Amino acid sequence: xxxxxxxxxxxxxxxxxxxxxxxxxxxxxxxxxxxxxxxxxxxxxxxxxxxxxxxxxxxxxxxxxxxxxxxxxxxxxxxxxxxxxxxxxxxxxxxxxxxxxxxxxxxxxxxxxxxxxxxxxxxxxxxxxxxxxxxxxxxxxxxxxxxxxxxxxxxxxxxxxxxxxxxxxxxxxxxxxxxxxxxxxxxxxxxxxxxxxxxxxxxxxxxxxxxxxxxxxxxxxxxxxxxxxx
Amino acid sequence: xxxxxxxxxxxxxxxxxxxxxxxxxxxxxxxxxxxxxxxxxxxxxxxxxxxxxxxxxxxxxxxxxxxxxxxxxxxxxxxxxxxxxxxxxxxxxxxxxxxxxxxxxxxxxxxxxxxxxxxxxxxxxxxxxxxxxxxxxxxxxxxxxxxxxxxxxxxxxxxxxxxxxxxxxxxxxxxxxxxx
Lengths: 230, 180
Hints:
The complex is a heterodimer.
Chain A: H1 2-12, H2 21-30, H3 34-42, H4 49-77, H5 79-84, H6 86-115, H7 127-158, H8 163-197, H9 203-229
Chain B: H1 6-31, H2 33-36, H3 42-70, H4 81-113, H5 119-148, H6 153-179
């Protein structure tokens, strides 16, 4: 315990910007996750907390805002049709959340698999990865159906919703979600393997990448499907 | 390969919580379509505006959780340098992001649709300030409360931030519309 404390104190004193081998050493010796050790180093006594957070987050936040706005632009383009389909308006925040959440889950789980050396060159044969794909596909299908039913039910209090609108909304949502989950998987695998080969932590890259792809892709695919179906 | 294991039900249940929040936000959005969505550029603004609180409050909660587990943050002492620093940084990021989102929506509307809607910049900025003034302290207290109750905030706070954030964001946009 005393050795651990000494090691952690030493880590806290290291200049923030440096990637220090001590992290790896403590991680191996004391079985403390690299994320935890990174936190100890990142917010040590010599750091200015707000400046550190702002400096590290601002670029990715601005990039995410621009990407989301590009996606929103697609919806603005078909605004007249979009605002006339009440269940889709009700679904908009839910869809936004769902797809983003799947991006986060896929990224963090794939990053962990990479760190645990479970992914080799023939990643498509990996049972855990296959299981994750099936799980996410089933959850996304179920939640898509449930959210469509919920939105149609709520919309029916405001206006008469025909079975055709119900079916079209269901088709749009299911296709959108399934397509995006597949795209997110492919993105996470390609980007994850690339980043990992570069000896960087995939955790720091995959979530921003997949959530941006999810935001942008969701709005674009949604807009295309609305044009096709309505 | 047991697909329906603990992990499956964890993902499924967290998504159900998220759906409920999204549905409430969507219902408010639908009820005020004329006032809110018919504003030019609003659909350019909304996806980014909703996503913003996930990026800011989500990261804020995640940093707090790590600090709580490490013992760097004490659940009974909220007024510390690290929490104040986290709060002020998150709030600053929220202001900058809201402003940027407003400017992007304004520019898109003007360049692509030839609609001059300067108001959307203030709408985004003020709504962002209101939303985060509510959401950030709420996230702080929820994270500490969950931790005190012996749960891992990392597993619970995500859907919490998503659901409450959606509702607060839409309500703050409506409130700002009333102010402007």
